[in-house]
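Progress report, Aim 2. The chain analyzed during this reporting quarter is listed below.
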Amino acid sequence: MKFRVVLGGVLLSVLLGGCIKSLIPDQNVKDLYGFNNFKVDLTLSPSSSASARLVDQASAIVAAGSVSRQVDSSESLGKLPFNPTTLSESVKAKTIRLFAPQAPLLTTQAITDDLPLAINLTSASFDINFTDGTSTVNKTFDATFSPNAIFQRDDASCSATFCDYLPVGSAVASLAITIAAQEAKTTLEILASNQNPKTARGDSLIGFAADPKLANVQQAQMTIETFGGVISFK
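Predicted structure tokens for the chain:
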């Protein structure tokens, strides 16, 4: 995973001129935290006290999973001569893959009979962790989707073992991840650190509305998409 910040001519002139940080424009950064295309393996189970931190307690089924990657320091930020006030980026579920309750089934028709036509996401919680072995930043972010975020089964993707589900409608299953003040500075320092290994970890809890067919599913996989990364200095 590579972390890139492109400092434009305006920012460079500000830094070289010694101007105060309030004059530094916001910097747009693609894949700010490095979570783009993370694939999170999920285990589904009935909602319980273990998932009480989900903001929507009406979730009937909860999917839990985590993923961890080593941060690629080949394009280091180096020592930052300035302190950001906030780091902000939204992450969303790009696709959700449901695996057959009884795998492998013999035919695609069999799996479409066993899996729901659509799934409804009611809420989500996402823990992030950055560390270089010396410094660590941990944050938790929650969201409720109202109306529910709907994912429709893509029958063309179905095999004998799984079907992919794609988002439909205007309700988006997204979370805004904002880190501010000292934690923002520490996060960038970790990502720019010369210490190795550096890791980025994400732990997810996804709440689903009740569905008789979804209740039989035990395994799923979510692909994360990121958009709108911004580093702010004012």
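The helical segments are 9-16, 108-114, 181-192. Confidence is low (pLDDT under 50) at residues 1-18, 74-79. These observations will guide the mutagenesis work planned for the next reporting period.
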